[in-house]
Write a structure and sequence with these properties.
- By secondary structure, the chain is an alpha/beta fold.
- It folds into 2 domains: 17-331, TIM Barrel (Alpha-Beta Barrel); 341-413, Golgi alpha-mannosidase II (Immunoglobulin-like).
- Helix content is 28%, strand content 19%.
- It contains 10 helices and 18 strands.
- The protein has helices at 17-31, 46-49, 55-68, 99-108, 127-131, 168-184, 212-227, 259-271, 295-308, 323-331; strands at 41-44, 74-77, 112-117, 121-122, 161-162, 189-192, 231-234, 248-250, 281-283, 312-314, 341-342, 348-352, 357-363, 369-374, 379-383, 389-393, 396-401, 405-413.
- An 8-stranded parallel sheet has the order 9-8-7-6-3-2-1-10. It has a 6-stranded antiparallel sheet with strand order 11-12-13-18-15-16. A two-stranded antiparallel sheet has the order 4-5.
- A hairpin with a 4-residue loop joins strand 12 (348-352) and strand 13 (357-363).
- Helix 3 runs parallel beside helix 4, helix 6 runs parallel beside helix 7 (212-227) and helix 8 (259-271) packs parallel to helix 9.
- The chain is globular, with a radius of gyration of 23 Å.
- It starts with 16 loop residues before the first helix and ends with a strand.
- 45% of the residues are buried.
């Protein structure tokens, strides 16, 4: 007869919520170890060029990064290089140059080629959709299931249709796509997006016994088979079903150059920081340091992302960044891997890395905020971003922060 393995039921205890999350993460890690010890730093094209990205944009940034901030080792092409959703091995006419050539140029320059792929979806104009209708998840009438009939239809070239990863031919296709990109094109980093659609609800699968979760995991295993040792970032993915299958996990919604987004995604990232380094490496989304927000608001964003200890990918057009903002970005490198432990209100965090102890203060309120932070011993307190020495403090550090800002202080024991 058939057997089903149930999930473990755990009853855990700890002195506080931070310790409890650590115990919980360690228990999950026991069953699903983190895949990668390395944590990437790089640049992503999406938040400055969007789907209109061109080969020239990539070439210009490769030149700039090599000269000014070579610590950004991964040069990541985002959505826009392909002609249609699903045709990942083809190059769109508007991109301006063969994708293989661009990736080779990145590798030749001494950097790591990285690329965005939404492996489980396709649009109705794609070759995958037209040539392989049998590969798609079906609706109750046997027709390809439109995503907008059962969930969000997609943010571009919608409605999306979904590859049925329970079909052995689809599994072979996914392995082929990623093996081509990794082994032939040299990609060492894959940003996987729209992963949730690989577990789309309301569909009829090739394997009638499959669940949404098993379908998704079958597809991810086929991807890993092709990708080899590449870093796999999961975005818009089902969290629990992705355990053991991704190297990095997007820990917030998409970032944008708006204060409300800085604040909201910041809370999301802080609430998931316990996962970092245990389940996977967290991706707090891109660092944005150009735009119309205030200096204080950019410092809130940079300070919060620094506190996560996760991936660091710049999302700016770096050819336009100021010297002062570039200096902030450099201070975030390399990723230090350690997540700060915050109080319940998420405005005071402590972090001890391999090199130093840090205190993070965050004020997302619309008015100034006073902080009184007890100290366990004497410290020389230094503003991490400016290197300004604030003085020696023995029992308490008092600071008043303006609205919408953050600070990172380096604490040197005396």
């Amino acid at each position: 007869g058939a057997s089903v393995q149930l999930e473990e039921f755990s009853l855990l205890a700890a002195k506080n919520s931070n310790d409890l999350k650590t115990v919980f993460a360690n228990r999950i890690n026991y069953f699903h170890p983190r895949l990668q010890s390395k944590i990437p730093a790089g640049w992503c094209s999406w938040y400055c060029f969007g789907s209109d990205v061109t080969a020239k944009n990539i070439d210009d940034h490769l030149i700039y990064i090599k000269k000014n901030i070579p610590q950004l080792k991964y040069i990541q092409l985002d959505d826009g290089y392909q002609p249609h959703m699903g045709d990942w091995l083809e190059t769109g006419n508007a991109f301006g140059k063969s994708i293989q050539v661009v990736l080779k140029e990145i590798k030749t320059a001494g950097f790591e080629p990285a690329i965005w792929v939404a492996p489980f979806i396709c649009d109705s104009n794609s070759n995958v959709f037209k040539k392989h209708p049998a590969w798609l998840v079906k609706d109750s009438t046997g027709k390809p299931l439109r995503s907008d009939k059962v969930t969000f239809g997609g943010w571009r070239l919608a409605p999306w249709f979904v590859l049925d990863a329970t079909n052995p031919q689809v599994q072979q296709h996914l392995t082929h796509v990623f093996k081509t990109m990794a082994a032939q094109w040299g990609c060492t980093y894959f940003k996987l997006d729209a992963n949730f659609w690989g577990a789309i609800p309301g569909g009829v699968y090739f394997d009638k016994k499959a669940t949404r979760t098993s379908a998704y995991r079958s597809g991810m295993k086929a991807i890993l088979k092709g990708a080899g040792n590449a870093f796999i970032l999961g975005c818009n993915h089902p969290l629990w079903p992705s355990l053991g299958l991704i190297s990095g996990s997007r820990s917030s919604n998409d970032i944008s150059r708006e204060w409300n987004t800085f604040s909201k995604t910041g809370d999301e990232n802080l609430s998931r920081s316990w996962q970092n380094g245990k389940l996977w490496w967290n991706d707090p989304d891109c660092v944005l340091l150009t735009g119309d927000l205030s200096q204080n608001e950019f410092m809130y964003h940079a300070s919060l992302l620094f506190s996560t200890g996760g991936l660091v990918l710049s999302g700016d057009d770096l050819t336009t960044i100021t010297t002062e903002r570039l200096a902030i970005l450099k201070k975030m490198l390399p990723p230090h891997k350690t997540s700060a432990m915050f109080n319940p209100s998420l405005d005071i965090g402590w972090m001890k890395t391999a090199k130093a102890t840090f205190l993070i203060l965050l004020n997302k309120d619309d008015q100034e905020k006073k902080f009184a932070v007890p100290l366990s011993k004497s410290y020389q307190i230094i503003d991490y971003w400016t290197d300004e020495k604030k003085g020696v403090y023995k029992t308490e550090w008092n600071e008043t922060l303006p609205a919408h800002t953050g600070r990172v202080y380096k604490l040197v024991s005396l």
